[in-house]
Structure formats: C-alpha cells, structure tokens
Specification:
Elements (H helix, E strand, L loop, with lengths): L1 H12 L16 H14 L2 H10 L8 H35 L3 E3 L20 E6 L4 H10 L3 E2 L9 E4 L22 E5 L18 H4 L1 E5 L2 E5 L2 H17 L6 H12 L4 H11 L5 H16 L16 H16 L9 H6 L5 H12 L19 H44 L3
Parallel strand pairs: 2-5
Antiparallel strand pairs: 1-2, 3-4, 4-5, 6-7
Helix pairs in contact: 4-5, 7-9, 7-10, 8-10, 10-11
C-alpha cells in the first residue's frame, strides 16, 4: 500500500496530471501517511507536493493532520531559505572581494528555470566550481566567513567546508530536515565530473568557467554556469547519484520543469546538443536522465535532441528504465542494487568493472552515519550511539538481501538485454 500511495503522489506531481489517483489516498491509515511524509522529506518533494495541492485547490483531499504537517514544513523551509540566502550572500561577497574565479553549480543558480521559488526546494549544501589558481583563495575566504575544511578525501573529490554547531543533535525525525539550524556545507569542485569512484571516464572541456555568466538573485550578483552547462551538470549530478544508489526524486521533477519551460527554445537545444555531441557518455547520460524525468514527471524530450541522443546503448537504457527504473526511483534508488546493471554499460575495462561491482556488492567500509539534524527536544549521547548502530545494522541487512537479489536477477537481465539489442539491430 505504501508504494501505491507513493505512486499516487507522483501522479499528482506529474506535469500533465494524467496519472492522478487521489481515490487511493482515502483508504490510507495514519501510519501509512506518516511513512509517506518521511518519504516525501527524503525525496525532496514535500513542499512541491503541498504547492501542487494548493494551486489545484485539492488540499482538502488530504487528511487534516497531513496537510498541517506539510504546511509546517513549508513554514520552516521559508525561514531556512532566508538563512541560506544570507549565508550565500556572505561567502559570495568574500569570493568577489578577494578575486576568486568561481561559478555556482546548483542551489540559487537553478531559479527560476528549474524551480519557481527558492522556498520550494530543500537545499543541504552549496556547490561551487573553482578555478585551480583560485582554490587556495576560495578556502581562505570561506575560513574568514566561519567555515572550516574537512579532511580532503582525494585530489579529485570536492573539498568540503562546514560550520560546526555544538548544539546540533542527532534525530531520525525527517521533519527536522527543514530546520534553519541544520548546517549547509560548501563543496568546492575542481571539475564538473569526478568519476574515479565510478570508473566512468567522461572527458569534459575545461572551459566551463570561461563560459559562465553573471546572474542576479534577490539583489545578490554572482557568477553561474551558462544555461547549457548548468543543464549538463544537473544531468551528470543525477546520473552519478543513480549509480551511487541515492538520488532524490526532486532532481527529476526539477529537470522536467526545465524541459517543459524551455521546450520551444530550439536554438538553446541545438547549442546544448553541440555541447555534448563529442563528449563520450554525455549523450547516453542525458538520454537516461531525460527518459526518467519523462517517465516519472512528464518532462518532454525536445525534438531537436532526438537525433543527437540516438545511441547503440539506447535500447539497453530503455530496458533498464522499464524493468527497474521507476521501481527503484520510488525508493530514491536506495532500495536495491539494480543500478549495477546500468553501471556496467558505461565501464569499458573489465578489471575496473570487477572492482566496482565487488565494492558495491560487498562494501568493506563502515556504513555512513545517518544525517545530523536538529532535534528540538535534545538527544542523549547514548541515544545517538544507538541510532548509529541501528543504522549500521539496517545497511548491512540491506547489502545482504539486495546483493542476493542482484545475483538472482543477473542472468535474467543478460538474456533480456541481449534480446532487446537483437530486436533493435544493435547486437
């Protein structure tokens, strides 16, 4: 029943609204709705859902306590958005004053093309592309505004800066994710694609900063990627997170919004096609993300892209979406390991693939901690340790069962893939 409720919510958010099934909500218990609210929070869809129900005058279809819970989230996120904007203003001013060469990658730069209002989005970090010669200067500017660097993981990974609030406690209550006190890290990126972990080699141009343009939002001037490059980064960001088994559904809703908002701008789509046509794997990643956006929320792939996105890999990608994509998306790609079938299509070297698959099937590292969120009533140190141990046990259980399902499904996928490619003439 939970999945049916999730599907009904996605139907309500579908841009054509052709899949709406509100009648299925009427039989849901309070416990099912409580789980659905947590799912909406983790998916980044809660406030989008509230806004859709309000704009279509259908909020009365929801149980009163559910509507009130969504409105509380929206009210908290409005305050949080104001804090994010002020925080953004502070470090962007520091970059501007010290001559840092940078470009904003997500967050505020997505408005209004991907999201009409800042308060609809749930943002947990700031992503900034920084020129190599400005990397040290950007770090000093952030330290001067109260941020502190974490230990660098690798030379390719982004460098993360955070503010440490000793009063923050740990909680599993997803409503706390909208608290203004929940920290926002800043990630300084050296390049747009960091593919060492995935072993997928996408050779992008090195001119993104030179192609950036000036933007103005709420009186804040800043530098952001040009529209074509911003879309490419959104695609690669979604692609990477699908492969890593965690991708919020809100990414696909925002891309669907963009596709439909810019659908008639053929000149833009021709420029975008030219931007990706000679970049290996970029057309395939674009096709995958756009097909998922279309399947989930009704974003329409523009006509000028249909030929540029043709690929021998397209039948396999379509098969994966049909067989696993929507089902996996309902759990934010976090409930199974079917992404390994997809991942294999993009790794050329068999030995590299063996390493990737072994690491994903049998992770040897300690499970990541659950996110630190504000818990208004306080949380004991013992409770925090218990929560972390319970999280680790859940992840170990997941890896065991999901790995077994992958092994059982693997022969079936190989056969179906071969048949699909044969039917399309690509075998």
């Amino acid at each position: 029943m939970s999945r049916e409720l999730h599907k009904a919510i996605l139907g309500e958010l579908h841009l054509s609204k052709g899949e709406t099934r509100p009648a299925s909500w009427l039989s849901c218990s309070p416990r099912k709705w409580e789980a659905a609210l947590a799912w909406l929070d983790l998916s980044g869809l809660a406030i989008y859902f509230l806004q859709r129900m309000q704009s279509t005058h259908r909020l009365h279809l929801l149980p009163d306590d559910v509507a009130q819970a969504l409105e509380r989230r929206a009210a908290a996120n409005r305050i949080r958005s104001e804090a994010i904007l002020e925080e953004f203003r502070t470090f962007i001013d520091a970059f501007e004053q010290t001559g840092v060469k940078y470009s904003v990658l997500k967050g505020i730069s997505l408005l209004p093309d991907y999201c009409p209002e800042m308060a609809f989005r749930t943002q947990y970090d700031h992503d900034i592309l920084v020129a190599p010669e400005s990397f040290d200067g950007a770090g000093r500017a952030l330290v001067g505004t109260g941020f502190h660097p974490r230990i660098e993981v690798s030379a390719e990974a982004p460098l993360v800066y955070r503010k440490v609030d000793p009063e923050i406690r740990f909680s599993q209550r997803s409503e706390a994710l909208y608290s203004p006190r929940l920290e926002r890290s800043i990630e300084l990126h050296r390049k747009l694609w960091e593919g060492d972990e995935e072993r997928i080699h996408i050779r992008l141009a090195d001119d993104f900063l030179d192609r950036s343009h000036r933007r103005l939002w709420e009186g804040i001037p800043f530098t952001a990627l040009c529209d074509e490059d911003c879309l490419l980064f959104q695609i690669l960001h979604a692609f990477k997170h699908i492969l890593r088994n965690w991708c919020r559904l809100s990414i696909f809703l925002e891309i669907s919004w963009f596709l439909n908002r810019r659908a008639a701008e053929s000149a833009f789509w021709h420029r975008f096609a030219g931007r990706i046509q000679n970049v290996r794997w970029a057309p395939e990643a674009t096709l995958l993300v756009f097909m998922l956006a279309e399947r989930l929320f009704g974003g329409t792939i523009p006509a000028p892209l249909r030929d540029p996105l043709r690929s021998p890999l397209a039948p396999a990608l379509q098969l994966w979406i049909e067989r696993y994509g929507r089902h996996s998306a309902l759990s934010n790609f976090h409930g199974d390991k079917s992404s390994l079938f997809l991942h294999r299509e993009f790794v050329d070297n068999p030995s590299e693939w063996s390493m990737v698959r072994r690491r994903r099937l049998f992770p040897l590292h300690r499970p990541h901690r659950p996110p630190a969120v504000v818990f208004q009533r306080g949380f004991s140190a013992l409770g925090r340790i218990w929560m972390e141990k319970a999280h680790a046990l859940r992840r170990l259980r997941f890896h065991g069962f999901a790995g077994l399902r992958y092994v059982v499904e693997y022969p079936r996928w190989i056969v179906l893939r071969r048949l699909r490619l044969a039917d399309s003439g690509n075998l």
